[in-house]
């Protein structure tokens, strides 16, 4: 596969799978406002995924559109980081993951936007998405602070989410190592305000990886089965 | 007595009653019950369609569905806000939904069995809702009427999306077409039942009509829906599952078979296919999210205390 | 569809879907012995499903084998009762469902075995399965009694499972009404020994139905997505 | 001293030590550790393959897989029973697994990413296990040796099933073949690592060999596995992912690239891809099932009390 196509699929799949996990909150959030907010973010990410998949399909030039890429690739062909595919978890997991992921997307899209000379199409998508991502990051920030500095239970849950998800953040910077400094600065500021402890990097040798080369956690297959089953059950149908 | 006269005069003049106006207690209670039930219906109504978000067969349909379910949550918000202008608290209304004391539309107690059900709900259920709700845009209570204008605008958008989704299925593969027809077969009579019991059995209608909360009777609205839907079904190329459905030139309306009102009563009483599931889901969301609400409250209290200390 | 084929598919799908739910216990039971026991029952039911699907396919005469019937039918074509498709639940739900379902299978297979003159193939499958079903029923009976007459918590969970599942048992007898008397006798005896209360029939107007005509609960689609996704992802492949 | 002499004589004569025989403390401890680790491996090993039971692509494969995972639970039972003959309690061993003090085979900390992984585990992982375990059938401790005879018989059945499953994939569609090759590519080096660190770094080996618990060194067993597997890979028509794999006529063995022992150490220390998940699953099964165990105990106690009362 063309390297650029693989790169675009990575970005697209991150957004698509993150959107899927957020959409699992439909009718499940603790209140209506949050139900709407999470759907909104899921919808934004789905929109990003669609633009990125379409662009990847065009670059590939094999006639695959957004649906062919979303519904007819096998698990080993998905390029998203493992962070976004982990089970939905409780609200703390959702919020902390959104913090980590949105902060990454914010840095990445900023850079892609700046590189518009090299990849104008991608830069345009990044530019369009940046406002959305800023909202996601703001939302995640506010909730991380509320949970971290809320009750003893919410603090415990938020810290557990931070500890469990932190190892998965390393994969975000395998190919974008230069972004980690800015990402860390953003995230550390939020965790500090939330009275949450930032896990040490070297204390944790567990650094799951593989998503970018299509090796996923065992959760991914179930997600794809659910997402793709209907589409695959009707080969060639139009919806 | 002055207040009563003012109220009667406003109603007679087809003007709006506003939150600060005096109004009869029974009027207030009727409105609270109706608006709350309507709000609850939007919230519970998220579940049957939400059931297909993660499985939607194309990304475009997934986006449409996600946005629609989100709109329903938004409708719930407007409507709870309208109810709150009558001096009740959203949390209390919500508690009454969870305890089962307040109802929601029985249509949402049927399962979405296939993807085509999403289209059928958009077409038939939202279609029936619109027929019910358009007259409510002229309801005598101002905040409710204004909320309904906004709701109806979005609902008719949803209804067209549902229609369009079924249209594609009806012109798709043989299996897609069968799926669409099957969904219409299952949703037709429950949609007819959405207008409530026949006028002969309807208890609240007369007073609501006098107060200009309601503008048409259940049976009038049902007939309007049938007349409208028959024509749309022809465009879709799908059959409504009523062999006795035919044009009655004398009446200027379609004759049709009544839905099973005994079934409707059973579902209203809690024994429909999904009543237990819908309520259990809702309770679970509230219970499993209680710690989040508590955290938000605790954080807000800390901030307030910190601000007060800073100012002291 | 040939009525007989529909009937056979009902029996087959009951066993197949019940097996699926039991197999979800793999590595999840409270101890090793029970993990083995539940797998064993899942395996027995899978075996019954395969024989019944094969027979249904032969009767249908359209060239569909057990896999075509299990993996390539859509949800609306599955004929199992809703009882077996309900989510796995806790161990009490599993045990009580197994009690209700095995007692039904025991009565049904006894009758089918006796009718060997009319349907010799089916009678042979019934005869072969009866010993298995007797074991399942015995296992479910022992556990129902242990849970019902165990601790306060296990009693509460068992009673809740009985109350939640009871309405779904009516569907078992929609077409086999003559079996309900014998079924009730079996089940009532066990519930009494377990100090559990048998729900009244008329106190409960909730009588879910539709499985035999392919109208399932909203849980069924997720089960089928998981079960069928891989098979459907490789059209025509041999495994 | 008599006891020591008896023990030494039995070992020297290649006879079996039995539970009631005196034995050195270190021998007992080594065996407990090894048998427990082996038992734990069977139990944790149910997870990666069990991951595919509900998704198996044919009913025949599903039945084979269900039976295989069930056999693994059975092996766990035999092995815990063998360990118990050494005076430990299964519950204690289990607690040590859950607390992380006792280990299980690191191979089970890799994810099963596709269906072909089930075949690859059967072929390579069970294949490696058999090479490891066949000599254990002659282990000096009787109960362990006898348990291993039973285990090996079933494992070799599983290994053939895995081979056969991969064989079908390798001769299937292009995508199936790619899936099979990909699985072999991912499982080859972890399987080589199953034999433990190279002899030069192996701490326990010498003593275990002297006690005739172990019969061959890690590297000898690894070589045996490589030699056997290369030929089977040819039959499968799949490639082992080692460009330096070639026959060495002088040694009469295949030369091969060593697995990444640093990775092995990381995984053993708890940092493999699935260590946390495997342990969390196990703990969750125990915790969420605690009420069942308590109910069974309470019921048994009531029955005992009732019987005693009846006899009093």
From TrEMBL, chains A, C:
Recorded GO CC terms: cytosol
Transmembrane segments: none
GO BP terms: phenylacetate catabolic process
Matches recorded under PANTHER family: 1,2-PHENYLACETYL-COA EPOXIDASE, SUBUNIT C, PHENYLACETIC ACID DEGRADATION PROTEIN PAA
Full protein name: Ring-1,2-phenylacetyl-CoA epoxidase subunit PaaC
Species this chain originates from: Stackebrandtia albiflava
């Amino acid at each position: 596969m063309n390297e650029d196509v693989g790169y675009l699929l990575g970005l697209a799949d991150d957004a698509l799978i993150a959107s899927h996990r957020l959409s699992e909150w439909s009718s499940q959030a603790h209140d209506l406002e949050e139900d709407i907010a999470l759907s909104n973010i899921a919808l934004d990410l789905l929109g990003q995924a669609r633009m990125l998949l379409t662009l990847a399909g065009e670059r590939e030039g094999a006639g695959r559109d957004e649906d062919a890429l979303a519904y007819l690739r096998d698990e080993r062909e998905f390029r998203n980081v493992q962070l976004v595919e982990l089970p939905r978890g409780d609200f703390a997991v959702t919020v902390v993951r959104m913090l980590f992921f949105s902060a990454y997307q914010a840095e990445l899209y900023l850079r892609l936007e700046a590189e518009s000379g090299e990849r104008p199409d991608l830069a345009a998508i990044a530019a369009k998405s940046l406002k959305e991502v800023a909202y996601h990051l703001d939302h995640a920030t506010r909730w991380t602070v509320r949970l971290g500095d809320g009750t003893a239970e919410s603090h415990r849950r938020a810290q557990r989410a931070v500890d469990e998800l932190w190892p998965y953040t390393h994969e975000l910077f395998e190919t974008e190592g230069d972004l980690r400094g800015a990402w860390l600065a953003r995230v550390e500021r939020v965790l500090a305000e939330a009275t949450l402890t930032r896990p040490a990097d070297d204390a944790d040798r567990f650094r799951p990886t593989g998503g970018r080369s299509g090796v996923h956690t065992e959760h991914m297959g179930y997600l794809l089965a659910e997402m793709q089953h209907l589409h695959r059950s009707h080969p060639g149908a139009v919806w | 007595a002055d207040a009563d006269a003012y109220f009667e005069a406003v109603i007679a003049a087809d003007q709006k009653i506003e939150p600060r106006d005096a109004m009869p207690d029974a009027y207030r209670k009727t409105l609270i019950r109706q608006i709350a039930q309507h709000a609850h219906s939007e919230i519970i109504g998220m579940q049957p369609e939400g059931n297909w978000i993660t499985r939607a067969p194309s990304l475009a349909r997934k986006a449409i569905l996600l946005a629609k379910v989100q709109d329903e949550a938004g409708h719930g918000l407007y409507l709870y806000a309208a109810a709150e202008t009558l001096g009740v608290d959203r949390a209390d209304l919500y508690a009454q939904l969870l305890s089962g004391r307040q109802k929601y539309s029985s249509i949402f107690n049927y399962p979405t069995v296939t993807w085509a059900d999403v289209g059928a709900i958009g077409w038939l259920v939202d279609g029936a809702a619109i027929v019910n709700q358009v007259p409510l845009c002229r309801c005598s209570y101002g905040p409710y009427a204004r909320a309904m204008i906004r709701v109806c605008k979005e609902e008719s958008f949803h209804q067209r999306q549902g229609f369009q989704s079924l249209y594609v299925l009806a012109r798709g593969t043989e299996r897609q077409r069968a799926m669409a027809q099957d969904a219409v077969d299952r949703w037709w009579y429950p949609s007819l039942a959405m207008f409530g019991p026949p006028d002969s059995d309807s208890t609240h209608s007369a007073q609501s009509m006098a107060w200009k909360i309601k503008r048409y009777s259940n049976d009038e609205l049902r007939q309007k829906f049938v007349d409208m839907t028959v024509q749309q079904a022809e465009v879709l190329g799908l059959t409504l599952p009523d062999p006795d459905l035919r044009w009655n030139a004398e009446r200027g309306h379609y004759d049709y078979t009544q839905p099973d009102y005994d079934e409707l009563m059973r579902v209203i009483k809690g024994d429909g296919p999904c009543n237990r599931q819908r309520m259990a889901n809702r309770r679970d969301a509230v219970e499993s999210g209680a710690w989040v609400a508590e955290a938000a409250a605790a954080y807000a209290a800390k901030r307030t205390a910190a601000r007060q200390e800073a100012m002291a």
